[in-house]
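Blackboard transcription, Thursday session:
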Amino acid sequence: MRLNYILSDLGIGLKRNLSMTIAVVVTIWVSLSLFGSALLAREQVELMKGNWYDKIQISVFLCTKDSGGRGCSGTEVTTEQKNRIRQVIETNPDTAPDGVFGESKKEAFDQFKKLYKDSPIVSTVTEDQMQESFRVKLRDPQRYQNLVSAVAGLPGVDTVQDLRQYLDPLFKALNGLQVGALVAAGLLLVAALMQISNTIRLAAYARRREIGIMRLVGASNFYIQLPFLLEAVLAALIGAILACGTLWVGVYFVVMQRAQETFRVWHWVGATETFRATLIMVVVGLVLAVVPTFLTTRKYLKV
Amino acid sequence: MIRFENVSKTYEGQSKAALLNVNVEIEKGEFVFLVGTSGSGKSTFLRLVLREHRSSKGHIMVAGKDLNRLASWRIPQMRRQIGTVFQDFRLLPNKTVAENVAFALQVIGKPRSHIRKTVPEVLELVGLDGKEDRLPDELSGGEQQRVAIARAFVNRPMILIADEPTGNLDPGTSVGIMKLLDRINRTGTTVVMATHDVSIVDQMRKRVIELENGHVVRDESRGVYGYQH
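(Written on the board underneath:)
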């Protein structure tokens, strides 16, 4: 097999179909970018779930002097009230064994300082302003209503936060984004498939004389298919690389520069997840190029 | 070299057979004219030899291989033993004479040194030395057909198939082409030529197989074009 003939064929083919090749590249680029974003959105949801769902399900915030909750009377929660609350939580059947953690003001303050370590807000807050809390792990994260209603309103309880009520809408939004991105990516990938097979049909038509002679003199099918295959692979690779670049830029500016700064509490997708997503994107891109090329060339270059 | 055993061919969507119960045996080194009116089955015969189509019935043996049993990935290998020439030359217009001939070797992966050696030899054989760098449209019809013959012969095939090679040429030029085909036949290559050219067939006095409506109606070892001559 003579590489230089194949490469010159490839060059001629690319030149001949330049506008079609660009169309394929752009379609693959956009569709893979969306696909990659969907992959990352999924990773993000998993990360958040892993971070929050499994660890702590419910936070029971206790009264401070300034709290206005139903169980507060304008004074700090007393030790007696705290013991009573802990007892109610621990005896509740939905609480996981050893699932209760008390967070003192000091711990809350340390955590606060860690999260906002670069922010001027730290200097304006004192340890005394922090709220004591119980963090409760559930046997089954889905069954939280029972415990919430048992604890809410006890003397000394300011508010009961079930994190799910804050996280669920977020997860839903992320899931929706993910589904939307996947659907759009899927549609575009179908368009890319059709574009590729159309491009090949045109290219095969443009080269029908050469192909006819190749078949006649006994060139192997693989030899005849190779330039088409290389063309498609090259277009897919360029599209995939552009998409990977787009994803990295997106992750860098949206997640690393903005989201991580603004919402420090959460874990965000980073380099590892992005790298994994780009790998999948490249593989998907190549498969998308190679499979229709094989099918189309088989159809149009029949022996 | 080529053997048809009870071969019939009906094209898809057609009720009438293009070839019907054809039995033909062509030995190595023979020169055979395939004659008959348009639609008599000459082209189908040649296409079956090239394995562009499969026969509907019967066996076709070419160079010792049963074409109906040949796996499709082995067809290219089989075709390398057959050279083909057409009425319309089928040269690549953007390649020179030498490039057109070399193309046939390049695409089957022959080494460059082999190509550099073989192409001038075969161009000399067909009488085109000195015109290596011309483009096809700078040549006369006869010269273009010589390029096509050079391309068909450059890989030294066992069989040369010519489908009306003189159909686009004037009588004088045709004689030259026939002399060339005769010379190639003398190297031991089996030549099968479909033609309408009465005077050529009558002059050459080679084996003639006549087809009519898909049947072999005549097979003479030193024949002429038709009975009426």
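Lecturer's comment: The longest helix of chain B spans residues 171-186.
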